[in-house]
Amino acid sequence: MPFVVNLASGNVTKEDRFAEKGHYGGSILGLRLLAERTAAGLDPYDPEALLYVAAGMLGGTAAPGLAKAVFLAKSPLTGVAGEAHALGPFAAGMRGAGAKALAVVGRAERLSYLLVAGGEVSVHDAEDLRGLGTAATTDALRARHGAGAHVAAIGPAGEHLVRYASVVTDHAFAAGRYGLGAVFGAKNLKAIVCAGPAPAEAAEQAARAGRADPAPVPDLAALGELAGQMAARAERADPVAVADPEAIAALVAYYREAMATNKLAAWQAGLPGFAAWAGDPIDPGYASVRNFSVTGAPRLRVPSAGDYDGRAVATTGSCPGCPNDCLKVYAPPGVERRTGGLGQEAFVSLGWNLGIDDLDVILAANARCNDLGLDVVSLGGTLAFAMECAERGLLPAGPAFGDAAALPGLIEDVAARSGALGDLLAEGSARAARRIGRGAAAYAMTVKDAEVPCIDPRPQPGIGLGYALAPGGPRYDALEHDLDFDPVVGLAYCFPEAARVGARPAPAGELDEERGRRTARLLRLWSGLDALNVCLFASSPTRPLTIDHLTALVTAVLGVEFTLEDLLVAGQERLDAMRAYALRESGGRLDEALPARLPEEAITEGPHRGAVLDRAAFERARAAFYDELGWDPRVEA
């Protein structure tokens, strides 16, 4: 572990890194490989750039919270380590096909895909897939390798090197952030296909078929039946061997029962789901409206639960082994609906942030983005930037806020880099602002050149600290929301869990040194979950997998005692490695500045009225954050 694939030569080798401690086969190992195998300053599109894809030692296990795969490379958007996670069945597909991790270097001469089957990895021609969306690509590769094959694919956006192109797995499950799809495109890599059982099972099936040994190179014609059997098993059983199956079964039973009494888990599991943004009006300042420029009432419609009727494609069974079903697939009729996997950021990013509240327009845009391979957060942020620039006379040909009819064409133009505007916006808002000049940078809501997520940090300054200081760039799910730990409106059941890592309740809008320390502690905890490929939406402190359940889960899978200290050590190492890489690639000049709008323009209405990120308080909290993580604050921001 991992397989090392050179696309230029077609050579595939396997390296044994099991003797190393503490990487768990996930992003920590990927970061070690990035530091070891690539030169400082290497362009993300250089053939020698390294792409890492892993289920790791836990991902793909049929248990709550263990359905994640990680995609990692130097980001063409931020210039530092870009890490994105895909939910769904792809991680189980990797493990079932006999791979925990892939490290990919080189550039293929022709568009190609990787096939993982029977514990072997091989490179195959994909020129006939050029220009196809992720759905058509997945369909074509499943027709070739079996209906049960699991596919991670890019669409036209990745082929055209859109800097925030995504990778989409199994139609609906995006690894969305930081442009990993463009890294695929730069390597002429259209997809990774996982089909067929691992070697021991292949030998058993080959014996039943009357052959003494499986072929050393997978028989592609035979893979369809084997892959179909593998997928059927993945739906109903664990494709990954675990040390203690009885403990896993007990944890599954516990989780299934606990969902009903856990507010967030019940919301995730229910209909229309926690990504649907349905029901009560949203407090002013909670989420971005018109590029974070509207600080009062949004004056945009919130859908009702009934508005999602007839738009559900799949609402259960998204992650093998996890009963929570939090990622649901929605799309209106008349579009490619299978790509409508709805993350919690999509509705605001493609809707309110653009001044649009037509649900069908938003759901269709989300599905189309996944088919084209576009990150909805960066696309929404970039389009909102362009709309504000147009409104202020800086981009005369730019789009207008609220123009729902123009949204589909804008999405197509960006994915294809079509025309001057499409090519400009394919670079992301920070680079577009530098091209436009004339003060346009004030309207690029970015940190490290990556668009900030749609949850407004002014009422929740810990989120703002996370956006600014997380070394990989701004991420919505890097840590829990401050409101969850507010002593008045928070989730009281999670306070004891948070206290175990030193995050005690405090008023959500309070920005002080303790906020900095609390944010660092939560970031370290969730970094540990990321390092192990454990789903944040199943885990402590706010979801049913408490710290004790998490440590029991890892122990049951690996057969080695795992503790809270181990989890926090992994979280710290991942953060340290990401920061060291960021410092190396930036020459010590880390961009940790939030957009100026956030400390200058306060929320003007509602319960968060007056909320703003005071610069002096933010700097004091930043110093405490650095002190908690043991980082040297002497970096140029």
Describe the structure.
Helix 13 crosses helix 14 and helix 18 crosses helix 22. The strands form four sheets. Strands 2-1-6-3-4-5 form a six-stranded mixed sheet, with helices on both faces. A six-stranded mixed sheet has the order 8-7-12-9-10-11. Helix content is 37%, strand content 11%. It has 22 helices and 17 strands. About 6% of the residues have low confidence.
Topology (elements, then pairings):
Elements: E1 3-6, E2 12-14, H1 27-37, E3 51-54, E4 69-74, E5 81-86, H2 90-97, E6 101-105, E7 112-117, E8 120-125, H3 134-145, E9 150-153, H4 156-159, E10 167-169, E11 173-175, H5 180-186, E12 189-194, H6 199-208, H7 220-236, H8 245-258, H9 263-269, E13 312-314, E14 328-330, E15 341-342, H10 346-350, H11 359-372, H12 376-391, H13 407-416, H14 419-425, H15 429-436, E16 446-447, E17 450-451, H16 461-469, H17 495-499, H18 513-531, H19 547-558, H20 564-586, H21 597-600, H22 615-629
Parallel strand pairs: 1-6, 7-12
Antiparallel strand pairs: 1-2, 3-4, 3-6, 4-5, 7-8, 9-10, 9-12, 10-11, 13-14, 14-15, 16-17
Helix pairs in contact: 1-20, 3-7, 8-19, 11-13, 13-14, 16-18, 18-20, 18-22
Protein name: Aldehyde ferredoxin oxidoreductase N-terminal domain-containing protein
Family: Belongs to the AOR/FOR family.
Keywords: 4Fe-4S, Iron, Iron-sulfur, Metal-binding, Oxidoreductase
